[in-house]
Amino acid sequence: QVQLVESGGGLVQPGGSLKLSCAASGSIFTINTMGWYRQYPGKQREQVATITRSGIANFADSVKGRFTISRDNAKNTVYLQMNSLKPEDTAVYYCHVEFSGYWGQGTQVTVSS
């Protein structure tokens, strides 16, 4: 079992920044690739970014150049730094252990003036 706890969401103005954190606990030795997803109301979750244990990252086209993903394996934590935020980034953001059923509880990000 793996538990994921996200934090760092909130309200920010367009053009602003937020940093999300996801702390993992439990059977963490099973974790390789971690991902951040987001979900709009009434829509399926979509992948935002992933990062392997060795630090190889991938991003959705919609966030390339604005978001970065990183991880601290010693702290079992993965981060999503979101810059130049747009209103269309407003969603609930979830942390996920790729290729597993483990999801965090989600954190709301709202970009609005």
Sheet bearing the most strands, described? 6 strands, mixed
Shape: globular
Question: pLDDT average, as an integer?
Answer: 94
Count of DSSP H/I helices: 0
List the helices and strands and how they pair.
Layout: E1 2-7, E2 10-12, E3 18-26, E4 34-39, E5 46-51, E6 57-59, E7 67-72, E8 77-82, E9 91-97, E10 107-111
Parallel strand pairs: 2-10
Antiparallel strand pairs: 1-3, 3-8, 4-5, 4-9, 5-6, 7-8, 9-10
Tell me what the structure shows.
- 0% of the residues lie in helices and 50% in strands.
- It has no helices and 10 strands.
- The strands form 2 sheets. It has a 6-stranded mixed beta sheet with strand order 2-10-9-4-5-6, with no helix packed on it. It has a 4-stranded antiparallel beta sheet with strand order 1-3-8-7, with no helix packed on it.
- Strand 5 and strand 6 form a beta hairpin.
- The chain is globular.
- The mean pLDDT is 94.
Concise synopsis of the structure shown:
It contains no helices and ten strands.
Features:
10 strands, mainly beta
